[in-house]
Specification:
heterodimer, A: 504 residues, alpha+beta, Ammonium transporter fold, five-stranded antiparallel sheet, 9% strand, disordered C terminus, B: four-stranded antiparallel sheet, 17 strands, globular
């Protein structure tokens, strides 16, 4: 009789292996890939292929060079490459794609110990590396050969967007931009237990909740949907944040992790200036994951309060068994949400009226001859057709927001006032009103300071701040000069010039 | 359909079709019979026979040593050949009584005469169970009379008959329930006499519809008994899983089921209790499944204790042609003990022999990758532990975290985490070792203090 194997039980293993899971993720990304290629054309396919091949080749080369067992076959490198490609612009040059892919695998994954050891999602790291290195190429998007702003960039400038096109993935944006296809793949992965629902739904929940509470428009479904469909939120929630390696283990920690990512994503979306903020919030979540794993550890079933209570024969209703903080927080959230929505609804018209008055005032400033301003349908249609885009990307992200015809008392056309916004401002958007007379000569320009996304300070207040700052500087210069006169230690520095007033 | 189950758990392929429909057949061995002196948890029994003694079926070969111990009973008639160390299924040597089988199977008493037991009290029932050397047939072999004497019998709320049989390949309890439903119900009613406040619940997984049907029929019109059909899932047949379903209670490993008002007995044990109390028949035979893909005729048997595994396999016409045996397990693949040789005796608590032509453990070792942190082990742990973090703590040597924050000692070693791990990591094996290490260290410290 031949020798029998001796081993510890269990003597059976599940069908699922590492490679099986990776194959499933690739399969779940296929709808997105197909839609992405169909919408964006051949170059998108080349970007995807370059990224995947570069990722797999890098892993293979690293394993060979370091005499490690071949790990490229498990498919994790291919997943990274595919995810990276799907989160890139379809017009990105191939060499950049390859650089990002190599960085993701070589630096983020292999150098930290390979599969299971990377500290942040390699695909996201590759994407952010490219964003930092090649900002211009990464954030230029084309659709049908015409460069155009992404819906999320429009959204952040307060423009209306076409949610249906965003949902289907036919709007301009990254290759994997089809929310429908992403959701199909992501929900399938969730339903088949490949990814943790605790993570994806708490990411989406945290994001929606933050935007609803602090987005300034309450729980307006159109507003929330537009934000959810853009800027990689869905891809982040279903495919990036749920990455096994960089997410925590226990259900409770996963929910916390998801909420942190969602809320950070919302925070960056509302107060940040870049449209790529969701990647950063996931990376921050990834970095926090080990902490969650150390501190958020649920007790075994037998030691949880409910179990101890059941063992001691306590029979209270379900409602009474919900921990009090949960009830209190839920109620507070509901009240706050309702109150904010209410305030928004009440003040909406007043704010718009104020805004209109302010606009009219600034139009007057650049087109002094006009008595009043009228909207012209032809111009409005032309702006609509441009989809907010002027002169391509040569001028950066510039949008025409409104153009009005100035009419004098007699009803004659005296000029036009055009309000434009540039999204390339250092600290938010810059809005400028330009007056043009009927002959096409620029009559003047006026900066609207009310457009600061981060600090909505009124024109008057801004002036006061500048004056105060100026007075403070003057006082300091005098003080230093006096000290110098008295023979004490001389001034260490003198401001060369007053910088006040060059904020724009 | 109501989702009656515990939290966590896995769904291994059950392979029960191999032997599901094979009726129970009594197998009478011809060869030498070997009776290890320890076929139960607790102290080994003390032999009461010596070389050359004539013994009969049902005769006591060894006396229990202490309360938590059980007698050893002869299952054949013949002559005692020796009392000597022999190899047993775990691979070690153990003192055994060896009997030369005369093939007559002459019983020591008439075990077919039904006795009227309506008048006997609880103590008598427990005494008869103890006399009959009944131990838990689920696998652990805990002496049944100890289980029937909890500190506070009035506090027992449920007597659970465990017919879940969640272990893949095994079908003998399925067959037992189909054919001996009335006897099992009678045994359960005898147990309920000991616990006036208790309900009898028969738990069966839904993959055994015939058994559920048969037990339901047998329970009809008995208000204290009910049959619970459970979701098919491993480890549904674990004591704690059943209590979680029936009583809705999770309890720490340090506590016994009786502490939360439950008594769990395997249906085979309950059948043995019925035989012991009503027929005064000692436990010398039990149901047993012989299964596995390489086996020519998988089937369910009533085997005599002390029969060699090899003899049973040969009698069942052995292996298929051209198959090399890679692995032999006493029990099923999830909890079974691998055997180096089949030339060892079947013990009381053994309920199956599963043979495999290829070894999943060997394949797993080849396929092993780094941990993905996928968290599947956490999802399936029936105790609510975090195997992945526990494994991390073990790798880092952080036993304080393993024991304290992660409750690593609560592991019941069901192996669900190892089964499910897509990276094929030997998690449960790691915990088994670590647990033993921590307990040994604790014992050493306690010893040092004295």
């Amino acid at each position: 009789m031949n020798a029998l194997n001796i081993s510890s039980s269990p003597h059976a293993r599940d069908r699922w292996s590492t490679a099986y899971i990776m194959r499933a993720v690739i399969l779940a990304l296929m709808p997105t890939t197909i839609v992405g290629v169909a919408v964006n054309g051949l170059h998108a396919l080349l970007v995807i292929l370059t990224s995947v091949v570069a990722a797999v080749a890098t892993e293979f080369a690293f394993d060979r060079a370091c005499h490690k067992p071949d790990t490229w076959k498990d498919g994790s490198a291919a997943v990274t490459g595919l995810l990276l490609a799907l989160s890139l612009s379809p017009t990105v040059p191939l060499y950049m794609t390859a650089i990002g892919s190599v960085f993701a695998i070589l630096v983020v994954k292999c150098c930290f110990g390979g599969l299971g050891k990377n500290f942040i999602n390699p695909a996201l790291a590759g994407r952010c590396f490219l964003l930092i290195s090649f900002g211009r190429a990464m954030s230029s998007f084309q659709l049908d050969g015409v460069s155009s702003a992404t819906p999320i960039a429009l959204l952040m400038n307060g423009k209306a967007v076409d949610i249906t096109r965003m949902f289907l993935g036919t709007a301009s944006g990254v290759i994997g931009g089809s929310v429908l296809a992403l959701m199909a793949g992501g929900l399938a992965l969730w339903a088949l237990d490949f990814i943790h629902g605790e993570i994806c739904f708490s990411v989406l929940g945290g994001f929606t909740l933050y935007l609803g509470l602090f987005g300034g428009q309450g729980f307006d479904p159109k507003f929330l949907l537009a934000h959810l469909c853009g800027g990689g939120v869905v891809m982040g929630a279903f495919f990036m944040a749920t990455d096994y390696v960089t997410s925590p283990v226990s259900k409770l920690a996963q929910m916390t992790y998801g909420l942190v990512i969602g809320v950070l994503g919302g925070l960056f979306r509302v107060h940040g200036s870049t449209a790529d903020s969701f990647s950063y919030s996931i990376i921050i979540g990834n970095l926090l994951a080990p902490l969650f794993d150390i501190y958020i550890i649920p007790k075994p079933f037998a030691y949880r309060r409910a179990a101890l209570r059941a063992a001691s024969g306590d029979k209270r209703s379900l409602l009474q068994r919900i921990p009090r903080p949960v009830v209190v927080l839920t109620v507070i959230t509901l009240i706050a949400g309702l109150a904010l929505s209410g305030v928004y609804a009440i003040t909406k018209d007043t704010i718009e009226e104020q805004q209109r008055l302010a606009n009219t005032a600034s139009y007057k400033a650049v087109c002094a001859d006009a008595d009043h301003f009228e909207a012209v349908t032809a111009i409005d249609n032309a702006i609509e057709d441009l989809n907010g885009e002027v002169y391509g990307t040569a001028f950066g992200r510039v949008f025409i927001r409104e153009a009005m015809a100035g009419v004098d008392e007699a009803g004659n056309l005296v000029g036009y006032a055009i309000r434009v916004t540039s999204a390339d401002g250092f600290d938010g958007n810059i809005t400028l009103v330009v007056g043009v007379n009927a002959e096409g000569v620029v009559m003047g320009a006026f900066f609207m300071a009310t457009d600061y996304v981060t600090s909505p300070v009124s024109n008057r207040r801004l002036g006061q701040q500048r004056q105060r700052r100026h007075r403070r500087r003057v006082r300091r210069v005098h003080f230093l000069q006096r000290r110098g006169q008295r023979g004490q230690r001389g001034p260490r520095f003198l401001p060369l010039r007053d910088r006040g007033g060059n904020e724009q | 359909m109501v989702k009656r189950t515990f939290r966590g758990g896995v769904h291994p392929a059950d392979h029960k079709d191999l032997s599901r429909e094979a009726p129970l057949r009594e197998f009478l061995p011809k060869g030498e019979m070997v009776f290890p002196l320890s076929q139960h948890i607790g102290k080994p029994a003390k032999p009461v026979v010596k070389k050359g003694d004539q013994v009969l079926v049902g005769q006591r070969l060894a006396e229990a040593d202490g309360f938590v111990s059980a007698h050893i009973v002869c299952s054949c008639s013949g002559t005692v050949k020796a009392v000597e160390p022999r190899r047993t299924l775990t691979g070690g040597m153990m003192d055994c009584v060896v009997v030369t089988n005369d093939g007559q199977f002459t019983p020591a008493a008439d075990y077919t005469k039904r006795e009227d037991v309506s008048g006997i009290d609880g103590d008598e029932i427990v005494r008869r169970v103890q006399e009959a050397a009944v131990v838990g047939l689920g696998g652990a072999g805990f002496p049944t009379h100890v289980k029937l004497k909890p500190k506070d019998p009035a506090a027992i709320r449920y007597v659970i008959a465990n017919g879940a049989e969640c272990e893949p390949y095994l079908t003998c309890n399925d067959q037992l329930m189909r054919t001996r439903a009335a006897e099992i119900v009678e045994g359960l009613e005898l147990m309920l006499r000991l616990f006036p406040g208790a309900q009898g619940v028969i738990c069966i997984e839904r993959n055994k519809p015939e058994a559920i049907e048969a037990m339901r029929k047998a329970c009809a019109g008995k208000p204290r008994l009910s049959v619970l059909d459970l979701q098919t899932k491993y480890p549904q047949g674990g004591e704690r899983s059943l209590i979680q379903v029936v009583a809705g209670v999770n309890f720490p490993l340090a506590k016994l089921p009786a502490d939360v008002g439950c008594i769990v007995e395997n249906v085979g044990t309950i059948y043995a209790i019925q035989r012991a109390v009503i027929y005064r028949e000692p436990l010398y035979e039990h149901v047993f499944t012989l299964s596995g893909e390489p086996v020519k005729n998988p089937g369910n048997y009533i085997v005599r204790d002390g029969t060699s595994f090899q003899e049973l396999l040969d009698a069942a016409s052995g292996l298929k042609e051209g198959v090399t045996l890679k692995k032999a397990m006493c029990g099923g693949p999830m909890m079974g003990i691998t055997m180096a040789s089949l030339e060892v005796p079947i013990q009381k608590q053994n309920n199956g022999l599963t043979l495999m032509a290829e070894d999943p453990c060997e394949l797993a070792e080849k396929e092993m990758t780094a941990c993905l942190h996928c968290g599947r082990c956490t999802t399936v742990c029936p105790m609510g532990l975090l195997p992945q973090l526990m494994a991390d703590a073990v790798m880092l040597g952080d036993l304080a975290r393993y024991e304290g924050k992660l409750y690593g000692l609560e592991c019941i070693q069901c192996g669900s985490c190892t089964f499910i791990c897509p990276a094929r990591r030997p998690l449960m094996q790691m915990f088994k070792q670590t647990k033993a290490e921590i307990l040994a260290r604790k014992r050493a410290e306690a010893g040092g203090k004295k």
